[in-house]
Design goal:
mainly alpha; elongated
C-alpha cells in the first residue's frame, strides 16, 4: 500500500490573495529578535569581562 500525497496547485490570483491576507513583517526581522536568557551561562560575555580586566591592568 503506497500513499500518495495530494499536491495543491494554485494559480497566481490565489497566491496574490493569500499573500495579501498573510501580511508581512515590514522592517522587522524575527530571526534577529531572539532574546537570550540571562540564566544561561554565556561564554562570550565571560570572555569580554576578562579582556576588559586585562586591558585596564595593562593600559
Amino acid at each position: 500500500m503506497s500513499m500518495k500525497k495530494e499536491v495543491i496547485r494554485l494559480n497566481k490570483t490565489q497566491i496574490d490573495i493569500y499573500k495579501s491576507i498573510r501580511g508581512d513583517w515590514g522592517e522587522l526581522n524575527p530571526v534577529t529578535r531572539i532574546v537570550n536568557s540571562k540564566k544561561i551561562y554565556n561564554r562570550h560575555k565571560e570572555n569580554q569581562k576578562v579582556r576588559q580586566q586585562i586591558q585596564t591592568y595593562l593600559y
